[in-house]
Amino acid sequence: MSRVRVVARATVVELLRRRAVVVLLFLVPLAFYLARHDLVGQSIRLATVGMAWALSTLAAFAGLAGQAIDPRLRLSGFGTFELLAGRVLGLWCLAAPLIAVYSTVILVDQGGLPRWPGVIGGLLLTALIAVPFGLLVAAVLRRPLESAMLLLVVSGLQVILDPFGLAARFVPFWSVRELGTWTVDGTDGGYVRRALLHAVAVVVLLGALTVLARVRALRSRPHLRLIEV
Predict the structure, then answer these.
(1) In this predicted structure, what is the pLDDT of residue 220?
(2) Cα–Cα dist 1/35, whole Å
(3) Which sequence ranges form a coiled-coil region, renumbered to this chain (predicted)?
(4) Which residue from 70, 68, 13 is spatially nearest to 211, judged by alpha carbons?
(5) Following CA atoms 7, 11, 154, 25 in sequence, which dihedral angle do they give, to the nearest 10 degrees?
(6) CB neighbour class for 107 (10 Å; exposed up to 12, middle 13-18, buried from 19)
(7) If 60 and its partner were Cys, which of 6, 43, 147, 188 is the partner (CB 3.0–4.6 Å)?
(8) Using an 8 Å Cβ cutoff, are 194 and 133 in contact?
């Protein structure tokens, strides 16, 4: 557990050094939210889309940065699961203040929402899914530009696809859309149950696939050679 905390702390410190990244992390969801501020439901949904893309992209870049040092950390005794768990924990810690800020902004700005817990829940689900999703994309593609573009496409599909269609259920953030419908439109509790079940299944699946991808990558990488001078 101590090694997980070490990786988590290193992830947070490394990302906080990039002040522009931190600023954009907070501004991207705000831009999406203000784009349709006149419509309550659309503004909340777009805020989650902006947060999904910002957090998943941040996670992807953290994963790509970690791939360069993971082989050396493995030689130092760190396990693959410890590396990934620490990275996920660090990214979730960074997401916590983002959730708090936007929960406050939306609830104050859209005062009187009868189902306000759904706003907090939607932002929380977004963060829980975005982090492992970004890490998985980075583990598979291993390139920053391609990873960012794919994450943008998937985040956009969350808005474009019909939420009642079958294809929408294969989008990682479908649960957020489902919970948002319950929050804004006042639908029955079945939306909440489906959202939670979908979110749990997605997080478990993304985590398992990320572990498999990283284990395979580390095993296929040539061993580091020690050069004596």
Answers:
(1) 64
(2) 42
(3) none
(4) 70
(5) 150
(6) middle
(7) 147
(8) no
Q: Which amino acid is at 35?
A: A
Q: Angle of helix 144-160 relative to helix 40-75, nearest 10 degrees? A: 150
Range of the domain at 173: 3-219
Instruction: Determine, yes or no, domain membership for 226.
Output: no
Answer whether residue 227 is part of any domain.
Answer: no
* Tokens matching residue 203: 């997080």
Report pLDDT for 48: 92
Contact 59, 130 (CB under 8 A): yes
Look at residue 228 and tell me if it is in a domain.
Answer: no
6 vs 128: CA distance, rounded Å: 21
Low-confidence stretches of the chain (pLDDT beneath 50): 223-229
Q: Report how many domains make up the chain.
A: 1
Tell me the helices (H) and strands (E) count for the chain, helix number first. 8, 0
Query: Taking a C-beta distance cutoff of 8 angstroms, is the pair 63, 87 a contact?
Result: yes
Measured between alpha carbons, how far is 169 from 80 in angstroms, rounded to an integer? 30
CA–CA–CA angle 15, 209, 53 (5° rounding):
45
CA–CA separation, 73 and 92 (whole Å):
21
Task: Supply the pLDDT for residue 2.
Answer: 84
Is the residue at 229 inside a domain?
A: no
CA distance 178 to 121: 11
